[in-house]
Write a structure and sequence with these properties.
6-stranded parallel sheet; alpha/beta; two-stranded antiparallel ribbon; about 240 residues; 8 strands; single chain
Length: about 240
């Protein structure tokens, strides 16, 4: 792979996924899912059941829940349940959602080293901003890009490259930090290295195989690590 040269004035840029990477949103997502299941007299599901699906959107969570209940889910009912889910979730978006341990320290560490920070999530941009506002993190990010910010979403490269452009960065000085194959594939497609947070919602074998580096916790996410990944990419290119 040929690595593009960084613009001389481009700042180092760290791009973060949101659900399962920066913020543990699974408790509030589970609450929203159970609210909608209760409307159809269905039994609640557990947090542990939902976690692997929590980063893949309301449709994935609803489809999984109906499957666990061995209940058919037609397109009309799915659309009604998605609307139910999103309405309840927006009203209860940060009741129990919190940054993962060490996440805020990592943001500070990167910022203090001159990094610009951005979010690239498959949440809608409006809900991403609402969540980050609610937990007091939004001001830290030069760009917050949701699935609807650009013409396509992760794993499409345009979601990552568009975020880089909005944040004033360069692909050659950017890194993607996420917790699923959606994130690692998006980074590959955009030609930038990735750090997979191994504690995330769906850090499966495919994601681990694609990741440039796997971090077990946020203490490992340092400016030195990111510069090491860029150096290795430049040599390999």
């Amino acid at each position: 792979m040929t690595v593009s040269k960084a613009a001389p004035d481009a700042p180092p840029l760290a791009i973060f996924d949101l659900d399962g990477t920066l913020v543990d949103t699974a408790p509030d997502l589970t609450g929203s899912l159970n609210h909608c299941l209760a409307q159809r007299a269905m039994a609640p599901v557990t947090l542990d059941m939902v976690r692997p699906y929590a980063g893949h959107g309301s449709r994935a969570m609803l489809t999984a829940a109906y499957g666990w209940a061995a209940r058919d889910l037609g397109e009309d009912e799915l659309e009604e349940q998605v609307a139910c889910f999103l309405s309840f979730y927006e009203a209860n978006i940060a009741r129990h959602s919190l940054p993962f341990p060490g996440a805020v320290d990592a943001l500070d560490r990167l910022r203090d080293a001159g990094f610009v920070l951005a979010v690239c999530t498959n949440k809608s941009e409006r809900l991403a901003r609402l969540l980050l506002d609610s937990i007091g993190l939004s001001a830290r990010f030069a760009a917050i890009a949701g699935f609807d910010t650009f013409a396509a979403r992760k794993p499409d490269a345009i979601h990552v490259t568009g975020t880089i452009e909005q944040a004033g960065g360069s692909p050659a000085r950017s890194v993607m930090i996420g917790d699923t194959r959606t994130d690692t594939s998006a980074a590959l497609n955009a030609g930038i290295p990735s750090i997979l947070m191994g504690f995330g919602y769906d850090a499966n074998a495919q994601a681990r195989a694609e990741a440039t580096h796997i971090a077990d916790d946020y203490a490992a996410v340092t400016p030195e690590l990111v510069h090491k990944l860029w150096h290795a990419r430049a040599i390999a290119g």
